[in-house]
Amino acid sequence: MAVLSYNEILPKTIITYNGEPYEVLSSHIFRMQMRKPVNQTKLRHLFSGKVTEISFHQNETVTEAEVDRIQARYLYSNRGESWFAEEGNPKNRFSFPEESVHDQVQWLAPNTLVEVLTHEEKPMTIKIPVKVELAVKDAPLAVKGNTVSGGSKIAVLTTGAKVNVPLFINTGDIIRINTDSGEYTERVEKA
Prior knowledge:
Helices cover 4% and strands 56% of the residues. A hairpin with a 4-residue loop joins strand 15 and strand 16 (183-189). By secondary structure, the protein is mainly beta. The chain has one helix spanning 98-105; strands spanning 3-5, 14-17, 20-30, 38-45, 51-57, 61-64, 68-78, 81-86, 89-97, 113-119, 122-127, 131-138, 152-157, 162-166, 174-178, 183-189. The longest helix is centred in the middle third of the chain and has 8 residues, at 98-105. It folds into 3 domains: 3-64, Roll (SH3 type barrels), CATH 2.30.30; 68-127, CATH 2.40.50.140; 131-189, CATH 2.40.50.140. A 6-stranded antiparallel sheet has the order 1-6-2-3-4-5, with no helix packed on it. A 5-stranded antiparallel sheet has the order 9-8-7-10-11.
């Protein structure tokens, strides 16, 4: 376990804060007038998914959390839970409450391989690819001259997620989505 000073607490780092594992979402080091520098961070609790804002001062340190990673396949979501099975060991199934992983699961088709972060052999959260390719299940037809709204429309993907897409995207097209922002990036295959 590495000890991190206040200025080494950077995004995507996993730290132990108050005995619990947190992922650093953002950090901003600043100094106000004659005071000492402060690192203003947003942390996400890896078990519950709750985000909190914490300020770390110059004299504070935290330890890097001991986190293991395993590969797992997304199976399905049902009754408020999202189920996964460890790759190579399908009998090892586990679930997460849907509210803690919904932002990631909405971009996953069944049988997609994901990375699961574990702490003391207990699954904490999932990491999905930054870009995924999904098929468009339903896209309204573009009406000629209807560009007042900026030339975009809302399409429903096969996973049920809704995304803003350009007018030329049709039902059956395969598009690439940025999972961090939830935005359309490009059309991969035309229907």
